[in-house]
Amino acid sequence: MIEPLSLLTAFLLGLFGSSHCLVMCGGIAAAIGSNAGTQRVRVTLLFNAGRILSYSIAGLIVASAGLWLQSQHQWLMLVLRTLAALMLILMGLYIARWSLMLTRIEQLGQGIWKYLQPLTRRFMQSPRAIDRLWLGMLWGWLPCGLIYSTLSWVAANGQPLLGAAAMFAFGLGTLPALFASTLAANVLTPFLSNNRVRQVAGGLLIGFGLWTAASVWLLS
């Protein structure tokens, strides 16, 4: 069940994973800001609103799938929650730079992304500010281990509306870093790229993943 504390956890997952977000999305965010002129704030908000909307839609979809699995057999949910715990641990290892195994999982989404990426160029070149919303929505489907980890955790809860809310909270957690990279490129990069910060954030994610795994098998 996703409770307020879990929504806070989703927000912190996005916040602590912001260094990864800067690698994946920081470049396009900075480019949007540099090309927007006096509309920087507006296009930044539109881009990030589109991105977070896509995260919320994905949360709704995977949580619905989790609910369906739960209706089929209870042991399927145990498997799903164990997978969620493993993904969180891998994400923690990735953020701390102790293991890059998660990058292999990111490659699973390349099949869909190759069809969406050409559309991003169209909206990127458009002079209309509203097209930054559509660009953000497309960019929300960029293959990303951090998103996959959070979605697996959301799916394990099996509650569609609250799954969408959790991914919305996750998106808000990623917002400070990407907003700063758009309006003032690299303001947060030195902090989020600091080895100590990455290791602390990674350690917290690993701890949460281990706690999730323990709750699956000890409390179920």
Automatic annotation (TrEMBL):
Keyword Cell inner membrane in annotation: no
The answer on whether this UniProt entry bears the keyword Transmembrane helix reads yes
Which residue range or ranges hold the Urease accessory protein UreH-like transmembrane domain? 9-211
Residues crossing the lipid bilayer are 6-32, 52-69, 75-96, 133-155, 161-188, 200-219
Provide this UniProt record's keywords sorted from A to Z: Membrane, Transmembrane, Transmembrane helix
Protein name per Swiss-Prot or TrEMBL: Sulfite exporter TauE/SafE family protein
- List the source organism: Thalassolituus pacificus
